[in-house]
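REQUEST FORM: STRUCTURE PREDICTION
Request ID: SP-0412
Submitted by: Lab K.M.
Chain count: 1
Length (residues): 983
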Amino acid sequence: MPARIPMTERQRAALLALPGTEAMVVRHHGLDAEDLSAIGIARTPATRLSYALQLCCLRYPGRHLRAGELLPAIMLDHIADQVGVDAGVIADFARRTPTRYDQLAAIKARFGFSDLSQPVRTSMMAWLATEAMPIVDGRILLDRLLNELRTRRIVIPGISVVERMAAEAMLRAETDLVAAVDDTLDTEMRQRLDTLVDDKVHDRQSRFSWLREPEPRVAPASLAEILEKVALIRWTGISRVPINPRQEPRLTQFAREGVRYTAQAFQQMRPARRRVILLATMREMEATLTDAAITMFSALMGRAHLRARKRLEQRVTVSGREGRDRLMRIATVLETVSRAARAGEDIGAALRGIMPLDMLDADAAIIRRTAAPHRDDVLSEIAAEYRTFKRAGPQFLQTLDFHGRAGTATLRNAMTVLSDLDGDWRKPLPADVPLGHVERRWQRHVVVAGKIDRTHWEMATYGALANALASGDIWVPTSRMHRSLDVLLAPSPGASLQPPFSLGDPHAWLDQRAEQLDSALRGVARNLDGRDAALFAGERLRFPKEQKDDDGGQDEGRHLTLACYGMLPATRITDVLSQVERWTGFTRHFGHVSTGLPPADERAFLATLIAEATNLGLSRMAEVCGAGSRRALLRMQTWHMREETFRAALACMTDAIHAEPIATWFGQGHRASADGQAFHLGGPGEAGGAVNAHYGRDPMVKIYTTITDRYAPLHQTVIAGTAGEAIHALDGILGHDSNADLTALHVDGGGVSDIVFATMHLLGLDFEPRIPRLSDRRLYAFEPPKRYGRLAPLFGHKLNRDLIVSHWPDIERVIGAMRDRTVTPSLILKKLSAYRQQNSLAAALREVGRIERTLFTLRWFEDPALRRTVTAELNKGEARNSLARAVAFHRLGRFRDRGLENQQTRAAALNLVTAAIILFNCRYLGRAVDEMRRRGTPIDPAMLSRLSPLGWDRINLTGDYVWSDHLDFDAHGLMPLLIKPLP
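STATUS: Completed
RESULT:
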C-alpha cells in the first residue's frame, strides 16, 4: 500500500471542504438559465433548494453532499437567493433521504457526472503517471487531480481514495525515475559512486563527508582542496549521464535530501536509489564547489593586490625616512665634485674618499626611479605574490571548463598557454605569447626592455581572468553563480510564463526625463540668488542641516514610551515565541525537506530557533532548555531550516506586524530601508571572514537587513565584511514574499550607486538614499552646463542619449528578469558593476542612473521634508540593529560558523526572532494604549508615531530558555497588563 500524501489534518480536511467565503461561493456556485430550468422541475421550495445544493456540491468541491452535513451560511444563502426560496426550507428536505438519492441520480444523468470506477479510474491513473514525473510535492499533484476530476465531471468518492491514487502515482514516478537513471550508469560509474560513501579519507571521515566540508580560509591550499573535490566529482562521470528535463525537479529534490544524509544513511539505502540520489547530490555539489573555487580564486587575487599595496606603502614610508639622509649624501657628493674640479684634483679619488661607490650607485638608482615619468604602483610589488598562483593557478585552469564571449579570445588563449606550462619554468613561453588581454597598467611591467617578464605576464593573465569572471565575460557552465549572462536572464524551463516586460518607447521616455531634468535644474539655478549664500560656496551645493526636534516633544514621547512599556508583562523569549506561534502559525512554513510537514515538536523547533538567533549553539541549548537532546535539535535545524522556509515564515510575520492597528502610526507601510550590521567572527569562523579596518582588526561579516517603515523585517543576507552594500540594496525589496506593497527604498551611503538608481526607477520604485559627501557629486544634463548659470561648475560630462537608446532592449531584458525574479538583483548588479567602464550595457545603465541621481540631488536640496523622512527611516533600521545585537549576545556576539550556509541560517533565525519580538510588542503596546485611553489618560496622536516596538527590557533573553507550564490569559488570549485596578 503506497504511503499517504504527507499533510496535516487541517490541510487534508480543507481539500474537499465546502466554500466558506463570498469570493469562492460566487466563483464556483453560480447558476445559469439551464441550471435553473432543471431546478424548476422540482415541485416544492425544499426540493428545489436541495436540487441546487447537490448540483453545486457536485461541481465544487466535486463530491456528494453528505447527509446531515452542516452547510456554510454564505453558501446556503447565495444558492437559495438564486433559486428564489427561503434558506430555512432546507430543514424540511433533510428528512427525505429517498428523494435526495433520486435527485442525485437525476442530476448525474442530466449534467453528465460519472463515478470514479473502471474504466474511468484506469484512465485517471494513466493521466496521473504523466503528471507526476515533474512534481515533487504530492499535495500539488493531489490538487491537480482534484481539479481534473472536477473538469471531467467525475464525482470524487472521498479524500482517502484520491489521496491513495496520487500517492501511488508519486511512488511509481519516483521508482521509474530511479530505474531509468540507474540504467544509464555503467558498472564503472556505479562503483565510483559507491566509493564516495564506502571509502574513507581517514579513519573517521568518508569521502562524501569530506566533499561537504567547507573551506572558508583564503589560501592556495584551500583552493587546491576545493579543486580536488571538483575533480573527484567529475571522476565519477556524472556529467556524462543524460537527464530528461522532466526529471530535473525530482533530481533537485533528491539533491536537497542528499546533502543532508550521512554516509551511513546512504549505505542503508537500496543500491539503485543510493546511486541516483548520490548522482543528484553530486550535480548540486559540483555547482556549489565550482562557485566556491571561483570565489576563492577571486579572493586570492584580491589579497595579492592588498598585500602588494601594503608593501608599496611600507616602501614609501621607509623611503621617506631615508630620503633626508640620501639628499644630504648627494649634497656632499656635489660639493666634493665641485671642490675637486676647482682644485684640479682627481674627482674619482675624492668621491671614494667620502663614500663607497656602491652606495653612490644605489642612491642614483633610487633617485632615477623616483624621478621617472611614471610613479611606482601596486603592480611593481605584485611579483612577490606569484608563489600563491604558481601551482594553484594552472590547477584552477585545468579543472574548470571556461567559456567566454568572442572578445575574450586572446585571454582564453593565454589561459591555454598557462595551463600547458603548468607552472613549470623549465618550459619556455611560446614565441607568439598572447598579449592582447594585458591591461594598459600592466604593460610596462609585462614588457621590459622588449622582453616578456613571465611573472608579471602570468599575474596579469590571472588578474584579467578574475575580472572577466566577475563581469560575466567568461563563465563556467557547471557553476550556479558564474554562468553566462544569457543563461542567468533566461527563465527556468518550469517557470510560469510572464507577460512580456516593456519599458515603452525609449525616445518618449528620454524626452520626458530630459524635460523634467532641465526644468528642475533651471528652477534650482534661478532660486540660488534668493537662498542663503552659504548654501552655494566654493562652487559646491551646501545642503542645509535639519533642525532637531524640540525637547518638549522628545520628552513627551519618551514619557509615553516608558508608560506603555511599564504596563507590558514580563516574560521569557520562549513564551514570546510560543504566543507569536499561536497568533500566526509561522512554524507551519518550516516544512520537512522530504515530506513538507511542519515540525512535529513545536518546543524543540523553537529551542533550535532560539539557539541559532541568540548565538548560543545547539549543544548548550539542549543542556538548558529541556525541550530535546542535541540530536533532536540538530534534526530540526537540518531538515526544517532552509532559505525558502525562513523566507515564507518571515513573510507571515511581516504581514502580521503590518496588520496590527498600532503599526499604522509607525509608517504608511510602503517604504523600506536597508542597512548592514557587522558581526565579528570567532573560533573556527575566523578563517571565513574579512578584516574591515572601519570595524577593527578582527575578521567579520555583515548582515544586510531590509525592514519596512512599520519596523517589519523583510529580508536578510550575509555578505563579506569588505563587500559593497550597493549591489544588495534591491534584494530585500524585490525578493520578499510578504503582501507589503513597497514603493520606496532608503539606504545609507554604502548602498548607493548609479546602477541602483537606474534599476529602481525603471522598476517603478523610488530610490531615496542618504548619499555621503553629496556636495562632491557631479550633476548631469543633456544640455550644455552654461544653460544653468551658477550651477555650471558642478556638471560632469554631457549625458549620452544615443547610448541609452541603443541598449534599451538589453536594459528591458535585465529589468524584466529582476521584476520576474528570474535572477537575484545582487547577482546581476554585481556583474554589471564589475564591467569595465567602457562596457556599453553597464555604461548605458549608469547614464540612466545619473539622470535619476541628479533629479534626486535637486529634490534633496529643495525639500526638507524628504531629508527628514529619509533620516527617520534609516534611524529605524539602526535602532532595529540594536535589538538584533541584544538578541545575538552569546559568545560575545561572535559567529563561530565556518560556512556561509550556516551563517545565513543564523542570520535568518536572528531576523525571525527579532520580528517575533516586534510583533509581540506591537500587540501589547496597542493594548497598553487602549487601556490608557480607557482610563482617561490624554494621548496626543502625534506622540504615537514616536513609539517603537523594539524594546526588550520586559523580555528575558539571557539564559532562561524554558517554557512556562501555565500562563494566565484573558478572554482575548493575551497575558494581563501590569496595571492597577480602577477604584
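NOTES: The radius of gyration is 35 Å.
Reviewed by: T.R.
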